[in-house]
Specification:
148 residues; single chain; 8 helices; 0% strand; mainly alpha; globular
Length: 148
């Protein structure tokens, strides 16, 4: 289906073809729920956080920030494959999310996948530089120096 076909289909269903994040009220609601999930994670209730992020993803399957944050929760629970899968999805939907490359690289280093980790760290470094994030850039460059 073409993008035009999708837009026409959405209009026929009474839905807006405007991307989710282009709708300010919806964006505010998504961010509010995302923050609720993050707060649960910071309180240590990772399962509640995952439930909130999963609910967001179920309703908005292209919401990169929900995948990223759920990946963080999975990582903290030691669920590496699930975390990597969520970081993959976050990157798929938002390729400029430097933090997703960074987090995925950390997991790949733990798995001994040094070549893949190096690729992720190099991509994260470029993105951090473009986003003028010196802390992130410095962190990934330190990790790059440690890869054998």
């Amino acid at each position: 289906m073409t993008l035009w076909g999708l837009a026409v289909g959405l209009i026929c269903l009474g839905m807006s073809p405007i991307p989710l994040l282009a709708q300010p009220a919806l964006q505010d609601l998504l961010e509010e729920q995302l923050i609720q999930g993050m707060n649960q994670g910071m309180k240590g209730d990772l399962l509640a956080a995952i439930a909130i992020f999963s609910s967001l993803i179920a309703r908005h399957p292209d919401y990169a920030d929900a995948y990223f944050n759920r990946g963080i929760a999975y990582r903290k629970l030691g669920k590496t494959p699930a975390a990597i899968a969520d970081f993959d999805q976050a990157i798929n939907f938002l390729p400029t999310l430097a933090e997703a490359y960074h987090e995925r690289a950390l997991l790949r280093l733990e798995l001994g996948e040094n070549s893949l980790a190096q690729q992720d760290l190099e991509r994260a470094a470029k993105l951090y530089q473009a986003q003028q994030n010196p802390h992130g850039d410095r962190a990934v460059k330190l990790l790059l120096q440690q890869i054998p």
